[in-house]
Amino acid sequence: MSKKNDNTLVKNASFLMIAALISKIIGLIYKSPLSNTMGKESFGCFQFAQNVYFILLMIASFSIPQAVSKIMAERLAFKRYRDAQRIFKGALLYAVVVGGAISIFCVAGAPILVPERMSNARLALQFLAPTIFLSGILGVFRGYFQAYRNMLPTSISQIVEQIAVAVVALVMANFMVQHFADAPEDTLRSWSAAGATIGTGAGVFTALLFMVFVYQVNRKRIQKKIARDKVSVNESYRHVMKIIILIVAPILLSAFLYNVNGYINSMIYTTVSGVKGIKNSVVEGLYAECGFFLTIINIPLTLSSTAPTSMMPEVSGAYAMGNIAVVKEKINKATWLSMFISIPCSVGLFALAGPITRLLFSTTDGTAGYLMMLGVITVIMNGMSNISNGVLQSIGKANLPMLHAAIALIVDIITVTVLMFATDFGIYNVVIAMIVYALVMCVLNHRAMKRELGYKNPWRDAYLPPLLASIPMGMVAFIVYRMLYAVLKSNFLALIPAIVLAAGVYFMVYLIAAKPKAQTLAGLPGGSHLVKVSRKLHLMK
Predict the structure, then answer these.
(1) In terms of C-beta density within 10 A (0-12 exposed, 13-18 middle, 19 or more buried), how is residue 96 classed?
(2) Contact 254, 386 (CB under 8 A)
(3) What is the pLDDT of residues 17-75, one digit of tens each?
(4) Is 167 in contact with 203 (CB distance < 8 Å)?
């Protein structure tokens, strides 16, 4: 039974990881032609509106899937199907009320939420109001199926959502650009950014339709279970709503503290830029460059954080049994996996920052590449803090990462404010503040883990081999690209071989430096093939 549960956990985690990765890749691909269609300044407005929307979405619905899944799963474990269904209906009511209120605030509060220097983003934010309302309902359905340990509908809906976002955003942005081609620049930027946000709403609406369809398909089977239910206590909806709020509140607060720094940094950047007399078009253009950089690093962030996060239930189980040695072993495994992915990604993006940003976003003036070189360290640090956050939550110390996030946020705000007034670094200050925030989180979380578990970071095993392998990898990537570009004069044709050869060098040097066991590599996606190749090359016994 335990083996079956482990297999289900791995399968579900794999579904979510693959779906998240595919969604991020689609998001990366479509934003390249989108920025070309809209123009860099309009894309900056679109990006700013998306950041504000993300904060409002977090308040309205971010924690709903986790809360619904947790509360329903507790009842399903005792076959209380009727009570679980009441949780589902109560969560729908919660989503409608809270989502509706936040949507109204989104429309009415746009002038407050978006500073004057980014005023062209206000209409785009208002266009996102219906999406906030629908997202809460979608989150309830996703949590519903997760409670039944069925991650496939959620995974498919994420991919369907992102495809719809990409298609509709490109079509509507192009329509707005054509329709307002002769209008004043501010009008064109405002409406083209708003057109792109229609894609976000279309994606959520499409995913919701898919989830409702899956629910209808499974409804008869679930109704039969409810009809046979003789153990439910028929909880009142008042009690249900109270439970939902009590579960949602701490998750919401944690998520808010972890993510609000990006919005605050952007507000400080745009406001101080206005005080310094910088033109709106310049502020919008530089913010777009930051958006290019953030879009690209979302890929390695997803790769390095999703898999380790899926291991955290094992940490929780081992800690509950008092087996601290197993807890440390699981943490080391998660750390190794995260660093195995994030360190080479960071070094590779640093070495090829310019070519990659130019390939994906042709409107860049080169700033995005420099932001990438400065900010890739956050991929490694966020991978570390994601693991430590999960560990502290798993051992019943969820208040600690929240406290650390609050401290990091204060340091972040002070850093970006001082730098904006004291230097002329401009948009680079936003990335510097990101680095400071991530560093503070890593240091505080690690100290807490050491205090609570006596844990020591596995620097020699988890960090050193990937770093040693990444250095020659980065050198090969840089040199090969330069040589091929000098001959071919094509960014794409020079970049692809450079990436492929660099990846090969990384794996070869890593195997020599780390000498990992076959079962360790086999745990990676596609790891069995890597083991076979390694043995053929006599790099592994």
Answers:
(1) middle
(2) no
(3) 676 677 777 777 788 888 888 888 888 889 889 889 988 888 887 777 777 877 787 78
(4) no
Structure tokens at 494: 């020079």
User: Does residue 14 surpass a pLDDT of 70?
Assistant: no
| Residue type (1 letter), 368 | A
Distance CA 240, CA 244 (A): 6
Using only the alpha carbons of the chain, give its radius of gyration: 24
Instruction: List the Cα angle 126/128/130 in 5-degree steps.
Output: 100
- CA nearest 345: which of 371, 370, 379? 379
Angle 78-82-83 (CA atoms, 0-180°, nearest 5)?
Answer: 70
Distance CA 199, CA 53 (A): 13
DSSP class of residue 331 equals H
Residue 215 corresponds to which tokens in the numbers above? 């629910």
Amino acid 320: pLDDT: 67
Measure the CA dihedral 34/282/261/301, to 10°: 40
DSSP 3-state of 339: helix
Banded model confidence at residue 4, pLDDT cuts 50, 70, 90: very low
Residue 164, token pair as written in the block: 């719809």
Could you tell me which residues come within 8 angstroms of residue 402 by beta carbon, excluding any fewer than 6 positions away?
Answer: 250, 253, 254, 257
Question: Is the pTM of the predicted complex or chain greater than 0.90?
Answer: no
Tell me which residue of 122, 143, 125, 147 sits closest to 61, measured CA to CA: 143
The pLDDT assigned to 40 comes to 85
Contacts of the segment 158-161: beta carbons below 8 A, 24+ positions apart? 158/19, 158/20, 158/22, 158/23, 158/207, 159/19, 159/22, 159/23, 159/26, 160/206, 160/207, 160/210, 161/23, 161/203, 161/204, 161/206, 161/207
**Using CA atoms, how far apart are residues 188 and 196, in angstroms rounded to an integer?**
12
Amino acid at 431: V
Rounded average pLDDT over 168-190? 91
Is residue 13 pLDDT above 60, yes or no?
Answer: no
pLDDT 10s digits, 84-133:
888 888 889 988 999 999 999 999 999 999 888 888 999 999 999 999 99
Q: What is the pLDDT of residues 510-538, one digit of tens each?
A: 888 777 766 666 555 555 666 666 666 65
Three-state SS for 166?
A: helix
What is the phi-psi region of residue 150: left when phi exceeds 0, alpha when psi lies from -120 to 50, beta otherwise?
beta
Both tokens of 65, joined, read 């899937």
**What's the rounded Cα separation, in Å, for the pair 520 and 241?**
45
The single residue listed with the structure tokens 């499974």 is 218
pLDDT tens sequence across 70-85: 778 778 877 888 888 8
Nearest to 357 by CA among 378, 373, 339: 373
With CA atoms as reference, report the closest residue to 273 among 110, 474, 419, 90: 419
